[in-house]
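Recall that a protein's primary structure is simply its ordered list of amino acids. Everything else, from secondary elements to tertiary packing, is in principle encoded there. The following example makes that idea concrete.
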Amino acid sequence: MNRRTLLQNSTLGLGSIALGTLINGQESNRNSAGGLPHLPHSNPKVKRVIYLFQSGGPSQLDLFDHKPNLHERFGQEVPKSVYPDERKTTMTSGQTSFPVAPSNIKFSRYGESGIELGETLPHLGNVADDICVIKSMHGEAINHDPAATCFQTGAIIPGRPSMGAWVSYGLGSMNKDLPAFVALTSNGTGKTGQPLYDRLWGSGFLPGRFQGVKFRGQGDPILDLYNPAGVTRIQRRRMLDSLGKLNQQQFNEQGDSEIATRIAQYELAFRMQMSVPELIDFSKEPKHILESYGPEVNKVGKYAYNCLLARRLAERGVRFIQLFHRGWDAHGGAPNNVKRQSKDTDQPTAALIADLKQRGMLEDTLVVWGGEFGRTVYCQGKLTRQNYGRDHHPNCFTYWLAGGGVKRGFTYGRTDDYSVNVVENPVHVHDLQATILHQLGIDHERLTFKHQGRYYRLTDVHGKVVHDVLS
């Protein structure tokens, strides 16, 4: 075998060899995982993150923040001293009345910890002793897109790198055959939901190869995953090697570092043609595991399907897995919508935690659940005992965490009697981001990237690790 044949038939080929010559500057000094050489900054408590983002703003009042005394105030005006006009959106600022709308969903205590949850979350109640509920989340953005953008990128203005991109940039990949960062999306029953733009898992001003790879919710998870009829894998390899030569020639002429991204994506796509078909094949999963995730586990693009796929991605070394579930927005018909979205998400979420735990993976996985904000205590639209609407509310809402290094069966933070403002242990969006990075061994103040003359970070320019929720 001569040298040319060896290179053509190798699994990496000329493309990967060329890649090493294309990456310059800081990128040329990466560690064996493809991360920065000085990371992690500290001993990581977890290897990976599964972020279950509930797009639309789940109602903390109907799910986690039980306020039984509000029933005595049904229909009374929320005092302006508690909820001033300037914190209302344009959708309700024109209302002449802002009556108290107590939750008509019953609450119960679960587990030895006695965590209170709405009756629409019975499966989560079964794993209540494994979760840490933070009732004191808060942020500034009052509309969906800027609020979601802030949670994903640390800024309400688009253009910054997403959290998964920062993690991929800093720590690299644990599996060369799969992306370090994957995004999955699902739609709730009866709701189209808010738009989910690709920039929510984008790389911003980081090199493009650190952006999340989106798995589609219908058909093949990745476009062009399979070679066209008549094209063999050897032919595809030769094509990529020839393309690598052309890209290297272009780099020599232009010096554009994004050419490195182009080659890296071609090479990863080639390897994913082998790894992804096995990844999405659930046929070898035990029957009891499939049943634990619920009846929609085999329906591509459903939340249950994505939860099981997240576990399979996690056990194959994907470092950051982002599930976006749309449908929690409820300006009217809030009780029924909470029930619908809970039915979609409760069982698969609890099954994911139990599945990770029984495999010994929960110890080194951080699971995060929450949306971009909460909902108002006052009613939007007509109020009845059985029906009410709720507007956007960023002053206080609930997130929960589970997994490595997190206190289990623990509730943190407290809101006022109306669930309008945080009165104990506030946790800002940037505090949550700093805590997630900390569990991965990353100091959020030291993971930076120079762009347009200054150094940026995910938590630009504040945030602190919430050590009180860590074990």
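Confidence is low (pLDDT under 50) at residues 11-26. The two ends are 57 Å apart (CA to CA).
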